[in-house]
């Protein structure tokens, strides 16, 4: 029998129960215990922690941690909260999450391509007006980020007939149908060539505030933005100014610097903004538990820690 695995999170009780049940079913050979139920002696034996927004002070009470499994795909908050010198952090790379995110990217790309925001506004004034149809083959979608989620989204968009380009930090091989851009010098080219820019970047030192007034000015006049990455990548004042000036036609925002988005945020009422409550790529306990189980079993069998986040790079 191995030592217990600690579960640490700031989840509501039902959500915690769902995750613990899914993890227990996926790893029947392991004992997974909420941190609060572990004695100090048991805490000292723990090698693996499974976390969802954990209290860093509790993580610090596990002195022999070998690695930390996050239940979220985005780990910038965890990396920041735990600080340097923490045990390796393994983020969730879940094919089901990638599928769900790719579906969301396709859905909201269609929303923009089929002019749904404009028809919504027309309905408010009982206006019967048919806008020109743009087939997917005439719509250029630029993905900022082509990692686990961006790659799945690119495949889905290509399959649907959109013209797809992508921007990454370093050059990397991309499918033949995708136009590749990379590095700081690659972003203006991507933005200038996109009718819809889709942000699937992690929040790092380099990406915080990346989409600012200069970047919006570099976009095609009337282009649209979808932000499914992290809220703080977008400079909200600059976005609102670009929308008000008509430079950007519409923004679909699923992530915000402060969540839940405060009721007094002007984004809620801006006619050029569609607000979503962080729903584009939810973690589902069943599929996440299967991914975590694979990581835990590989570690038990080999002693090797799964590929971890590069803390210096920030993702
Ligand atoms: P990932 O596999 O780590 O991919 C990140 C991508 O961003 C990579 O292509 C990377 O480039 C690129 N990138 C990072 N920094 C860059 C920079 N400075 N310049 C240009 N490109 C840069 O991450 P993922 O699994 O696809 O997830 C991406 C993000 O989505 C997460 O970090 C999280 O913030 C967000 N997310 C949102 C939701 C939601 O519900 N809204 C759900 C899950 C995740 P390289 O390929 O060169 O490394």
Describe this structure in words.
The chain is an alpha/beta fold. The protein has two domains: 5-94 and 283-313, Rossmann fold; 96-275, Rossmann fold (3-Layer(aba) Sandwich). Helices cover 35% and strands 17% of the residues. The protein is built from eleven helices and twelve strands. The strands form two sheets. Strands 8-7-6-9-10-11-12 form a seven-stranded parallel sheet. The chain has a five-stranded parallel sheet with strand order 2-1-3-4-5, covered by helices on one side. Helix 5 packs across helix 7. It is elongated, with a radius of gyration of 21 Å. 36% of the residues are buried. The structure holds NADP nicotinamide-adenine-dinucleotide phosphate. NADP nicotinamide-adenine-dinucleotide phosphate binds next to helix 7 and strand 7. One of its GO terms (molecular function) is NAD binding. Keywords: NAD, Oxidoreductase. It comes from Methylobacterium aquaticum.
Detail the topology: elements first, then pairings.
Elements: E1 5-9, H1 13-26, E2 32-34, H2 40-45, E3 48-52, H3 56-59, E4 67-70, H4 76-82, E5 89-90, H5 95-113, H6 116-124, E6 140-144, H7 148-159, E7 163-168, E8 178-182, H8 186-192, E9 196-199, H9 213-218, E10 223-227, H10 236-244, E11 248-253, E12 273-275, H11 285-302
Parallel strand pairs: 1-2, 1-3, 3-4, 4-5, 6-7, 6-9, 7-8, 9-10, 10-11, 11-12
Helix pairs in contact: 1-11, 5-7
The site of NADP nicotinamide-adenine-dinucleotide phosphate has 29 residues, from helix 7 and strand 7.
